[in-house]
Amino acid sequence: MTVRLDHVGVNVRDLTAQTAWYQGAFGLRTVFEFHLEGPGLRGVVLEHPRGWRIELLARPGSASGLRAPDPMTAVLTEGYGHFAVTTPELDPVHEALVAGGAGVVMAPGPSPEPGVRMAWVSDPEGNLIELIEKNAE
Hints:
Elements: E1 8-11, H1 15-26, E2 29-36, E3 41-47, E4 53-58, H2 71-74, E5 82-86, H3 90-99, E6 103-110, E7 117-122, E8 128-133
Parallel strand pairs: 1-4, 5-8
Antiparallel strand pairs: 2-3, 3-4, 6-7, 7-8
């Protein structure tokens, strides 16, 4: 079976603000935007130059869901918990995201996976993002 992950969907409160943040934080470009008038659902698909995509979705009347302060708390709730991106430069990427409005969740440090370093941030609405640097020494 040949499959490939296409995108990760994140439900947001403020689509315009979150779109701008993800574009600035990760260098994403808008692939397409859509609006389903019946339910009032609005969305945007954003893409990184390396091909990974994230879909941001907003609907009037949405309620706040999992807003765990850290990954250990997030795993106490079943379902979506976070998404992760890799980088060869963990420390400067972490610093840049925090300077751009990301919340500090966990400073760069060793991962449970051998040879890997990790850090955690949250987007401006509290969604968790893991940053991974593989083959770290």
